[in-house]
Amino acid sequence: MTLSRDVWRWLQSLELSALVRHPKWDLANGYVIGLVLHRYFPRSLPNTCFVNGCSHQTRSSNWRLLRHLLQPGVPSGVIEGTMHCRRGAAETLIDLLFRSLTHRSTDGLADSINRSFDDEEYQRLLQLHQRSNSAVAISAGISLSEYRHLPLCLLRARARKARTCPPSSFSMQDGRSERGTW
After folding, report:
1. Cβ contact 100:73 at 8 Å
2. pTM attached to this predicted model
3. How far is CA 109 from CA 48, 83, 123, 178, 180, in A?
4. Can you tell me the distance from the alpha carbon of 182 to that of 158, in angstroms, rounded to the nearest whole number?
5. Per-residue pLDDT tens for 79-117?
6. At 133, is the secondary structure helix, strand, or coil?
7. Using CA atoms, how far apart are residues 78 and 174, in angstroms rounded to an integer?
8. Distance CA 171, CA 143 (A)
């Protein structure tokens, strides 16, 4: 998926401090999206909120700020796909921003707004013997940033569960049944 010429011209006309050459990689940390939104809303969104970096912590903090601004008009799947470098997600997000900020239409990515950004559709088209096995599907379907994010979600869910359960309900037997054997 590529961006239309109008969208490229619009991005260049904004004269951002960060260049966009490969949207999939350049938009993943949220810094460029923050610069674009700062250009249109300078008072409500200070430029100093966003950090240009590639660590998971930097991405998470940038996207946490951007979610509140983008969430009503942009599906969460597009935001997650852009953050985790899914194919077509960054282009869809930039196209949506272009449409909403400039009130112009493009001939492009309207059909990909509500789709999931994985290769499930492609795998269905293949014959059964050509499809990916489980190991390949898991490694291709989860990016490194998602892998790093996943344990945090599981730990938070376990901590929430621990806060809601009374302390007397914990025992060594509960831990053994979860893990199998010690």
Report:
1. yes
2. 0.66
3. 31, 18, 21, 44, 47
4. 19
5. 888 888 888 889 989 999 999 899 988 776 555 555 666
6. coil
7. 38
8. 36
